Each structure stands twice: as structure tokens, then as C-alpha cells.
């Protein structure tokens, strides 16, 4: 069996279980057919974790980070991924999970749906940063504190995307519902892939860039497993989700409004909708009419 070559900086501090299982990494690659490594391939590797699940480890050191993408493109659906974040001092790092079209799309047509986990100093909580880009325009940021330690175990992060909603969920609990507003742009026509990356962003990620990455703690690892993509299901008799009639309430069903409100009241720490510096004279975006 061919050896799996990794740069020394990403091998030195490899968790013991991963190091012992590097020999089976080639087998794990074959069984993890839904995603593929993209950039920083020498900084990422597949292995079988202690539960027997094929797992992708992304590594970041001072030279570069790493990333992956889904092999398939999707137009609507539900996308789930289990992630275990960087342990201890993760300041300056960003671990991501997001939907985006291929890179050859002109920026004025760029759509994107983001989970970004902003690292912090040891003992300080992660910030979960969410954003939605439509036609090249983002700045729809909402941020949250998680109600658990995301470095101690795997947790499931999900995006539901249909013609009326983009819903962000953590362990099945909704934390954000970006609703399609009448007359406003919304991602409806181009297929997107699911991406994940680990990279250095110490110019802004932690306390606005005041806390920098401590490279003496490198290499840093984030772990991804159990990717699942579920196609969007329309109403009976409708050919596909894009043909759902505008007056249909099909996509409004199944949203736990009470759980969404409760999570946002307890764990949301910032919303662009209520940013008085941005909207001093009113004129908030139409998607910001919901109280939660």
C-alpha cells in the first residue's frame, strides 16, 4: 500500500488515533465518495475514526490551510455535516461549511450560504458566524454563541435551502430562517456545491482582529464526517421544488417557530437587521420584518 504523505507540520501533532489509522486512509477515501479535497491536499487526510466513520481532517499551519467540496452540485435540498472544531487556542482561525456555485460564476451573480466558526483564545467560546450572499451582495450577518463545547465532540450543522427559506440548524435546532421577501433577490436558479475549509483569518476573525493566531499552537485540526444531502421534496403533483406555486405554504411547514425564537433570544449576539449604525434612518431590509 502506498504511503500517505503529509507535511511534517501537519503530522507532528496528529492525534494518536488518527496517526495509528493513517495506514487505512486510502480505504477511507474510497468509501467517502461524496466529497473531494480541493486546495491544501497535503494538509488534509481521510481516516476511520473511533466510531468507524470515514472522517476528513483539515489541517492549518503557518504555510497554508485546506479545504474540500462536494462532488455534486445541488439546486435546493437539505445538507448535513458533522463537525468537530479545533481544540484549545483557536484564535485567528476560521472553520467553515458553506454552499457556493463554482468559481467561474461572475461576482455579480455570486450566491453563498455560510456557516463560519470563528476561533478564540483558550477558554473563550467560539462565535458562529452566518451570512447569505445573493447576486454578489452579502453583509447579512447574524452571529451566535453555541450552547455546548463544539471541540469536545461532533455536532451536526445543517442548511435547508428551498425556494422560500434558507434555514440554518445546529443539532436539528433552527437558529436562523432567511426568508425570501417579495421583490428581493434570493438564490433560486444556480446549482451550488457544499464546501468546507480551515484557514487563517487573524486580521478579523477573533475580536475584530485584535487577537492573532498563535502559531506555536499549530498545526490546527478540524474534523468533518457524515455528509448527507437530501433532495428538496415538492408538494404532491408538483414536478420539482422550483415549480411550487408562489401561494403554496408547503415550504412553511415543519419549521419549529417556537424553537427558532427561543434559540435566537438566548444565543444570538448580533444581527445585521438590528444594526443601528447601518440603518440609522430606518429602511431595514424587507427580510428583516420578522421579530426573530
Short account of what is shown:
It contains 4 helices and 15 strands. With 292 residues, the protein is mostly beta strands. The longest helix has 11 residues, at 257-267.
Summarize the structure in words.
- The protein has an eight-stranded antiparallel β-sheet. Strands 2-3-14-5-10-11-12 form a seven-stranded antiparallel β-sheet.
- The protein is globular, with a radius of gyration of 20 Å.
- The relative contact order is 0.19.
- Residues 1-8 and 15-31 have low confidence and may be disordered.
- It contains four helices and 15 strands.
- By secondary structure, the protein is mainly beta.
- It starts with 7 loop residues before the first helix and ends in a 21-residue tail after the last strand.
What characteristics describe this protein?
single chain; 292 residues; mainly beta
Low-confidence stretches: 1-8, 15-31
Range of strand content: 25-35%
- Give the end-to-end Cα distance, rounded to a whole number of Å: 54 Å
Structure classification: mainly beta
* Overall body shape: globular
Average pLDDT, all residues? 89
**Amount of helix:** under 10%
- SSE string: HHHEEEEEEEEEEEEEEHE
Q: How large, in whole angstroms, is the Cα Rg?
A: 20 Å
Major sheet size, sense and barrel closure: 8 strands, antiparallel
User: What's the β-strand tally?
Assistant: 15
